[in-house]
Amino acid sequence: MKEILKKAEKLGCKIPHKKWSDIDREVAPVLREMEKAGIKIDVSALKRLEKKLSIKVSGIEKKIYKLAGREFNISSPGQLSEVLFSKLKLPTEDLRRIKTGISTSASELEKLKDKHKIIPAILEYRELSKLLSTYLEPLPTLVDGDSRLHTHFGQDTRTTRLTSSEPNLQNIPIKGERGPEIRQAFIAEKGNKLISADYSQIELRVVACLAQDEVMLEAFSRGEDIHAKTASELFRIPVSKVDHDHRRLAKTVNFGIVYGISPFGLSQALGIARESAAEYIFRYFDIHRGIKRYCKEQIALAKKYGYVETLFGFRRKLPEINSENKMVAESAERMAINTPVQGTAAEILKLAMIELHRKLKSEIRMSKSETNPKFECRNPKLLLTVHDELVVEAPAAKAKKVAKLVKEVMENEVKLCVPVEVEVGIGGNWDSAKKNVIK
Questions:
Q1: pTM of the predicted structure, to 2 decimals
Q2: Distance separating alpha carbons of residues 246 and 231, to the nearest angstrom
């Protein structure tokens, strides 16, 4: 424990006197209570959305058949490949080959979206079909007698990140039209509100501290938009000239670097030439010397000791980093870079959950509710954790007070060498809580 504290102090961080095993032990009962509480679902809203999307999928299906000139099983990779590449003669030069032929994965079809009208239709068909089969059809069947949905929380043993299963609520899309529509069906009980609290760029703040990257540390300390700043650096333009596309690309680069992305991977993510992607990475590392040094050091440590560790001492063994197989070794190198970042961010979230659970139990005792005896709304409750976000349910009259407490705990339970920021919103459903951010 002393070594962990010394490491944190050296980085300019102030952390609770706990190691990762203590954190996991203490968060377990918090997760059990969250599983038991569940979250209220507007079943009627989900069924209406299911009907709406089913009609839309049927229409897209007919459109695809018309564009293809015949009916076929759109979900069959073999039949789809035959239609696209044998019948419609779409180009295959840049597409990945697999054992059964040419890949028809979403990432490969994205490369062809401007080549034929059938490609955008197929991608939309897949997206809506997945939403129907994963959420809209099964969720109404999984609620209890009070229309509350109970997910199961677990932990990724490789990174210590928390997971959700049966059902998995972490893959509901955030962007686009459909994700918000699904989240609108996750509602508060009558007389209550939902509070959504989301860490702002926590992994980038963690890597700024672990790498002691001066440029990134200064940007976060000044409260600058880190993606706009990176765009300014990459495109060599003033921040005032950065537009949406510049910022989107910079965001992909920022997070890609944390995940050890290669020029090929970045070119695929951005849909640009590999040479351009390599140039962006070169420029990034030329500016962010601390990040470049961190990446090299983590790979060297993993090769020497066979593992990397988080700020709180969790170790991930990576013996494959010394593999003679280049692809296996490179994959391990990416893990060596990313695991300490992902793992530390996960530990920070868990520590906040432990402290928040304690404070909600001991400091904000509400008077007993007579209007809703089934669900104990006299006390605010932690309901969900999704990536870097926490969802809390609280009596409407106390929602602002609880939201303030949630933000305070999440921002201050662990003190990094840069400010930790959390966006908090309040609403009657999950979507409105994410959008109605309070200051």
A1: 0.89
A2: 6
